[in-house]
Write a structure and sequence with these properties.
Number of domains of chain A: 1
Radius of gyration of chain A: 18 Å
Structural class of chain A: alpha/beta
Radius of gyration of chain B: 21 Å
Number of helices of chain A: 8
Distance between the termini of chain B: 45 Å
Oligomer: heterodimer
CATH class of chain A: Alpha Beta
CATH architecture of chain A: 3-Layer(aba) Sandwich
Distance between the termini of chain A: 32 Å
Shape of chain A: globular
Shape of chain B: globular
CATH superfamily of chain A: P-loop containing nucleotide triphosphate hydrolases
Strand content of chain A: 25-35%
Order of helices and strands of chain A: EEEHEEHEEHHEHEHEHEEH
Chain lengths: 251, 436
């Protein structure tokens, strides 16, 4: 589904990603862990199409060149980024926002607009999935939301848009254990054999709830180690310094 | 070649005009104003108040040249009507009161009609109020208006009269290719405990210059909502001065919406003459070509325990020029004043111009006054967020601009008018996106 070959990215002449290789297949969950400043968020930004990066290498999404696509086209093709810091949009209600997103996607696929009753029913169902207060739907996107509500709103949007590949950028950061459980349950219910998740996190704790098939460690702009979920436990126990030492030894 | 300055020509012609006034109850006032104009002349950019707004084209115009008189029956008011509003309607075409298109109402309690008719029907009211508030002594165009405005609207509500239907004034300029003047003089008197909503809608497909002065008196505990719409104003020039006098415990609520017109200057001034007054100003201006829209506002806190709240927002395209000057005067007696002012602007390109100037003059010490002025661009984080959800650049920008400007439209308290403007706003901003 997603194939990343030798992806490099820099901003203001500062090299952040230094040759990333990664393959994600349908039905898989990949966790990307790494210390601060290792390039995790840059990776998600580059995949989602944020401007301002100098990018080289190749990112294929279902065989198509992702880097050539505008961010909205990537979304229509099935990429979704759950933001580490969801953006507040004053003056745009959640409901109108979601209706526009859904209908723009449907337009791209040559489908007619979703009728109002189906839309409202779908909204209700998906909001329940992440236990989001229906009253928040009338309010401006993320404005005045608590940290947990913002993160749940991201997963709610994910549920509405049904992407093929979802990237969760530190969705667990700042969540208490109840909110973490709600968010994870939502994600687990959305998992199926046709979609895939890339979960970026600082904390192994999240991976108790969203169990990954693969764990990758990103350090200094490169994936330095890949393994199964046991790798996450090892990292939790020994810290990243252990890995640094081990890497030096290998060199 | 004549060496007489064009302004003097106007003055000379004013004298001729004044000599025809014999017997008019307003003669004294008009003569005094003509003298004021002779002294003040037309505004120019050397005056601090007109620094950024150049009306030099006025010098070439003849304020007394009549505009074509059109057959009222040939005007289809439905083209201009605000849908879904049950209202009194006063229609002016090229400055003339169109009686057959208007729904006049003239009773003891409620007078909704024209200045020309009020001259006989409300003579005392005019002599008591007309020209008493607008600053003709120091504003040339106001003096000129006082001297020769032939007509306008007059609304008078007697004590405790609640006018449940809004009054919509359609000010239509059409049918001429030469730029001509309209001097319109309006008066609104809402006596104690009364309640009124006025909507002024300026419409033009002709190169008009509208010089409008409106005096509004809000009696004690009375309530006036006042909307001024310049949304289909073509390439009109406009100088409009609205002067409001508020008595104790009164409320005045104004929204001024401008997204057309070539050269627009809106002066909005309110003075608090008693305690417990409440004043709200909302304004929105969108500049989509090389036009100029200037809003000069004043809230004169002359009495204690009064509140004012002001929010003006603007979106300026690559060739537009916007001016905002917001003066808040807090006089020594005006303790416990609570005044808030905000002016927020979005520049669509770095070639647009905004001159914004908050002017707070505070002479009382126990007051709460705050202001903020911002000039910025669309937030790139917000734009990116919308795009990652599958909303394309153009649509995303339109959504964000609509949300920004919508805050002002949302302040409109008449549902039908608010919905009508919101729908138009989205189209207008979408059009602006495509144009650029």
């Amino acid at each position: 589904m997603l194939q990343i070959n030798n992806l490099r990215a820099s901003i203001d002449d500062k090299q952040i990603l230094k040759g990333i290789n990664l393959e994600v297949k349908p039905g898989e969950v990949h966790a990307i862990m790494g210390p601060n400043g290792s390039g995790k968020s840059t990776l998600s930004s580059v995949i989602a199409g944020r401007e301002g990066y100098e990018v080289s290498g190749e990112v294929l999404f279902n065989g198509n060149d992702l880097l050539e696509m505008a961010p909205e086209v990537r979304a229509w093709e099935g990429i979704f980024l759950a933001f580490q810091y969801p953006v507040e949009i004053p003056g745009v209600s959640n409901t109108n926002f979601m209706r526009t997103c859904i209908n723009e996607q449907r337009k791209y696929k040559g489908l007619p607009e979703m009728d109002a009753s189906t839309f409202l029913r779908t909204m209700r169902e998906k909001a329940e999935l992440v236990e989001l207060d229906p009253n928040l739907m009338k309010r401006s996107v993320n404005q005045g939301f608590s940290g947990g509500e913002k993160k749940r709103n991201e997963i709610f949007q994910l549920a509405m848009l049904e992407p093929k590949l979802a990237i969760l950028d530190e969705t667990d950061s700042g969540l208490d254990i109840d909110a973490l459980r709600i968010v994870s349950n939502g994600v687990n219910k959305l998992r199926n054999k046709d979609n895939a998740f890339v979960v970026i996190t600082h904390y192994q704790r999240l991976l108790d709830y969203i169990v990954p098939d693969f764990v990758h460690v990103l350090m200094n702009g490169q994936i330095v180690k890949s393994g199964t979920k046991e790798l996450a436990y090892e990292l939790e126990e020994k810290g990243y310094d252990w890995l640094k030492t081990e890497l030096k030894a290998t060199v | 070649m004549s060496t007489i300055a064009p302004a003097n020509t106007l003055t000379d012609r004013l004298t001729v005009f004044a000599n025809q006034l014999a017997g008019d109850p307003l003669e004294g006032m008009r003569r005094a104003a003509a003298a004021d104009f002779a002294r003040l002349g037309l505004p120019h950019t050397d005056l601090e108040d007109w620094k950024y707004t150049n009306f030099k084209g006025l010098q070439q115009l003849d304020a007394l040249a009549p505009l074509p008189i059109l057959d009222e029956a040939a005007i289809d008011l439905n083209k201009y009507r605000i849908a879904g509003i049950d209202a009194y309607e006063l229609v002016f075409i090229n400055g003339r009161f169109a009686g057959t298109l208007s729904s006049r109402f003239e009773s003891e309690q409620r007078f909704i009609s024209s200045l020309a008719l009020a001259r006989n029907l409300r003579t005392g009211l005019l002599l008591e109020h007309l020209g008493m508030y607008a600053q003709q002594q120091n504003e040339g165009l106001t003096a000129l208006n006082t001297a020769l405005a032939p007509d306008g609207f007059v609304i008078h509500l007697a004590k405790n009269e609640v006018c449940e239907r809004p009054v919509v004034i359609y000010h239509i300029s059409t049918g001429t290719k030469e730029r001509g003047w309209v001097n319109q003089r309006n008066l609104v008197i809402a006596e104690a405990g009364s309640q009124l909503t006025v909507i002024e809608k300026y419409i033009s497909d002709s190169p008009i210059f509208d010089n409008v002065v409106t005096e509004v008196v809000v009696g004690s505990n009375a309530d006036v909502a006042h909307y001024k719409l310049q949304t289909r104003y073509g390439d009109a020039w406009h100088v409009g001065t609205t002067r409001v006098e508020q008595a104790r415990d009164s409320r005045y609520y104004n929204a001024t919406i401008s997204w057309s017109g070539e050269l627009v200057r809106n002066n909005l001034q309110t003075r608090h003459n008693g305690t417990g007054c409440e004043t709200h100003y909302f304004g929105l201006y969108l500049l989509d070509h090389d036009n100029l829209i200037d809003n000069h506002t004043l809230v004169d806190h002359a009495q204690p325990h009064c509140n004012s709240h002001e929010l003006y927002k603007g979106i300026v395209g690559p060739a537009g020029k916007a001016v905002f000057n917001g003066k808040v005067m807090v006089r020594p007696d005006a303790q416990k004043t609570d005044a808030y002012q905000s002016n927020a602007n979005i520049l669509l390109a770095d070639t647009g111009t905004i001159n914004t100037k908050p002017e707070l003059e505070i002479f009382a010490d126990d007051v709460k006054c705050s202001h903020g002025a911002t000039i910025g661009q669309l937030d790139l984080n917000e734009l990116f967020y919308l795009k990652t959800r599958g909303i394309g650049e153009e649509k995303a920008r339109t959504i964000l601009l609509t949300a920004f400007a919508g805050e002002v439209i949302e302040a409109i308290r008449i549902d039908a008018l608010r919905e009508d403007l919101l729908a138009q706003l989205m189209d207008e901003l979408h059009r602006m996106q495509i144009t650029f």
